[in-house]
Amino acid sequence: MSRRTARPRRPSAAPVSPVTAASPCPCGLPATYAECCGRFHAGAAAPTCEALMRSRYAAFVVRDVAYLLRTWHPDHRPAVLDLDPGQRWQGLGILETTEGSAFHTTGTVTFRAHFTAGGHRDSLHEKSRFVRYEGAWVYETAVFAD
After folding, report:
1. Residues 78-85: contacts with CB under 8 Å, at least 24 apart
2. What integer pLDDT is reported at residue 3 of this predicted model?
3. Cystine design at 44: which of 39, 76, 102, 105 (Cβ 3.0–4.6 Å)?
4. What pLDDT does residue 145 have?
5. Rounded Cα distance, 79 and 77, in Å
6. Taking 70 as the threshold, does the pLDDT of residue 11 lie above it?
């Protein structure tokens, strides 16, 4: 996901429910945050581009900017990533995955991520491209589907 914004920070409209190690993982897989995306946020390498995509979505949920920047290809990474404090990610649906396994050097993940912002529901439909960089999967670029 490549949400970049230069919007000024403003107070959140609603408090964020904290994600704990024992919480269900925000990525939607049936595991706790610690067992699922939390381990990637803590430093483990994502084994597939889909796992990286899910962990990046979870990083948006928990606002882990350092992880998002670390897993962004350096040729495309923004210098600063300013997340909208009023945006709340509500769910992730993986629509298609091509390649992106341990046997590939590239892969794509098409997904729809649902969110609310400013009291309005919306979704982000994107086809993200991932590549191996220095042995690890990283987010490279995206095409917005709508």
Report:
1. 78/4, 81/4, 82/4, 82/5, 82/6, 82/7, 82/9, 83/3, 83/5, 84/3, 84/5, 84/7, 84/117, 85/9, 85/10, 85/11, 85/12
2. 46
3. 39
4. 78
5. 6
6. no
Q: Which two tokens stand for residue 42?
A: 């803590």
Q: How far apart are CA 111 and CA 113, in angstroms?
A: 6
* C-alpha pair distances (Å), 71 with each of 11, 94, 111, 117, 146: 27, 19, 18, 25, 24
Whether 14 has a pLDDT exceeding 90, the answer reads no
104-127 mean pLDDT = 97
- The one-letter code for the residue type at 128 is S
* CB half-sphere exposure, 126, CA atoms < 13 A: 18
Residue 31, phi then psi, degrees to nearest 5: -150, 165
Helix (H) or strand (E) holding 57: helix 49-62
Q: How far apart are CA 62 and CA 89, in angstroms?
A: 9
Please, are residues 117 and 124 in contact by the beta-carbon 8 Å criterion?
A: no
